[in-house]
Amino acid sequence: MQYHSWEQLIExxxxxxxxxxxxxxxxxxxxxxxxxxxxLENNPKEEIPLTLVANNIQFSASIKWxxxxxxxxxxxxHWHSKFSNYLKQEFPNWRDINQFDQSVEMKLVFGKTxxxxxxxISLISSTLNKKKxxxxxxxxxxxxEISGGYMWSPxxxxxxxxxxxxxxxxxxxxxxxxxxxxxxxxxxxxxxxAGVFSSSKPSEFDDDNIWSNDGWLVPVEFHKLSKPFxxxxxIKSIKPFLPNKYSPLQKNGNGxxxxxxxxxxxxLASQLLDLLEGQxxxxxxxxxxDDADWKKEEAETQTxxxxxxxxxxxxxKEQLIKSRIGHGRYRRNLQKIESRCRFTGLTxxxxxxxxxxxxxxxxxxxxxxDGNNGLLLSPHIDKLFDGGYIxxxxxxxxLTSTRLNTDVLSLWHIDNLINIGAINTSIxxxxxxxxxxxxxxxxxxxxxxxxxxxxxxxxxxxxxxxASDLNMIEEFCLTFDGYAHCSxxxxxxxxxxxxxxxxxxxxxxxxxxxxxLFYAHPHFQSVRGDENPEDTLFDLYNELYPIFVxxxxxxxxxxxxx
Length: 562
Description:
Elements: E1 2-3, E2 6-10, E3 13-17, H1 20-24, E4 27-30, E5 48-54, E6 57-65, E7 75-79, H2 81-90, E8 104-112, E9 118-127, E10 133-137, H3 142-148, E11 150-154, H4 164-167, E12 177-182, E13 185-192, E14 197-200, E15 214-229, H5 235-238, E16 261-264, H6 266-275, H7 279-299, H8 301-309, H9 314-322, H10 327-335, E17 353-356, H11 365-369, E18 374-377, H12 379-386, E19 390-392, E20 397-400, H13 406-411, E21 423-428, H14 434-446, H15 470-477, H16 495-503, H17 510-518, H18 522-528, H19 533-561
Helix pairs in contact: 18-19
């Protein structure tokens, strides 16, 4: 017979499925259906002392009346903290238990004895998809990986040979706990939010040849400890649990420099977590709650598929889907990086929009949840940013589109934005990290409406970007619609054909030059697989610039003669 987390299989035995609070709070509730097993029916409110015998050790416990306004159990079993410590010792993976994940079961069996209120205790453990614990040494890359929310390693050593600490990256799974060690301290605890995938070396890493470019990346949610922990100060307690092979620490407590990532045993993890005095428990609790939200969102995948099949506008579909996927986690990830609206200074997140820099619809699963792919913006600023009427330079200055209606700015009392079609150097909204800069580059290229299309008849020398400003060159490419000037109905799949057609142009006309630039944009070059598309565009523009000037000057001279 099942009663909530209790189950009675035979007359003299009853089984309790332990939950996290059983370990953390030294207690559990008793549902009314099992009152008779503990002889509670005739003892409505008095405290009943119990003796629990486990492995020939006696532990004191009691059943107490617990007033409640709900119809839930009003009886609770309390036991001494020594019994909780015993359970933690016998179940070193006890932190794997949570109410949102039933893949881990740890059971407490109460067996009646000949003595009243004395019970023999036996333990049952059924662990599926057991959470793993990892140790990562981040001396060289701590700042980059913590702020970026990931771990990264090359796939092999520079000589092409395998490295077991790099191979471990492929074994990390969602929910695994990671101890971050750097500068002799464990200062951060990470929880993997996704499995590994291939990724080139992050751009924020130092530009050196220490590691090859081809690597593994694991998304990790890092949490800073309020009290950093120095293992060397506790090496006597830790040493018995250190592995003989691939140990993250030397026997003197110093870090093993040759180890990047290594798995540690549940016993060593449990010892570290105890020494950290409950700091990690709170982090894990919050993560489990987050994970529960995530699983609920995953459960709605079918609903999302149904939405995509409905005959409704795409904008409506996007809003419906956004409300169901990772929104809570994305908000939390963003708030770790951004604390206010950069333009208005407002800090109360109730009134701010958690805006994606690279639009949600254009982002992959990782980018949708990446806190670096977002800004906290006041609603009216978000409206302008999301609509592509403003953007931001890497240096933290505001860019304003020529399509922006100045009446809007005046009525919203943000007249200081009126510097149309240029960088507003009078307003600086703060620096961006390297990952944010990558997303902002996408926004400027694909969302920001820098300027209206410029016809060849209207094109003047002043409209030509500076030959050394790559960002402005890329934007200039998109002021001309190359699709409309090609005989091929172009799409990304036809880029090689388009390139052949472009090369046949004579460069005698502005349309020829602008068509060549349009299809030299990094987007099209990357489709073809060019390794350095920005360099290709830069060199081409510098080659074409004097031809642009000559044609425009000739055109101007002819107009004057007429």
